[in-house]
Amino acid sequence: MPTRRQLSYAFALALCGAALIAAETAELRPWVYLFKPLATILVLAMAATAAPLPSNRYRLLITGGLVWSLAGDVLLMWPASLFAAGLGCFLVAHFCYIGAFATHGAGSSSRFVTLIPFALIAGTMLSLLWPGLGALRIPVAVYVGTIATMAWQAFARALAKRNDAAWRGAIGALFFLTSDGALAINKFRAPIGDRFTTTVIILGTYLVAQWMIGSTVGDDA
Questions:
Q1: What is the pLDDT of residues 151-200, one digit of tens each?
Q2: Is residue 219 part of a domain?
Q3: Which CA distances in Å does 209 have to 10, 105, 175?
Q4: DSSP 88-102
């Protein structure tokens, strides 16, 4: 179970997330510029100040992923011309998460058969997005493959360690896939709903994902 400290950060993140969703829905850009990075900073603070469990290397990789996510958040708030740069930041973030999840037995104990569902998800996503990607086909394909690998390694780690923290990381990875998938479909395929629904789906799942991944630091029970 999450610790009291982690739950206090979750409460603060929920308040910040609600404010962010309201600001995004109402198109109050100055408040979006405040609350979106603040939400990721909260998760970063939770992970960076936690005990270095299961190792200091693991904490550094997870916090590194959150730092790159924060950079991506900022870039994606600006004009569309910075989309590729924001995508690149999140790509590096996922490499950090892969490095974290592939440690402590996960990489060696995972069977390649567990990759199959994530490969199918990645292939289905690309088939949906491909016609609308244009010049971004290669970068998006690399990104989709990377986040699918991240989710695979998160689940491999959960199967290897079989503890609450590892399973939170795996579920967080699924939320990340959901958030990025919804964002990509909304941007490159077709709107997934009205402004409020779209915002809740994309930002809500993203914030849950980051909290669940960040909460794996300092909790190896």
A1: 999 999 998 888 999 999 999 999 999 999 999 999 999 999 899 999 99
A2: no
A3: 11, 22, 5
A4: HHHHHHHHHHHHHHT
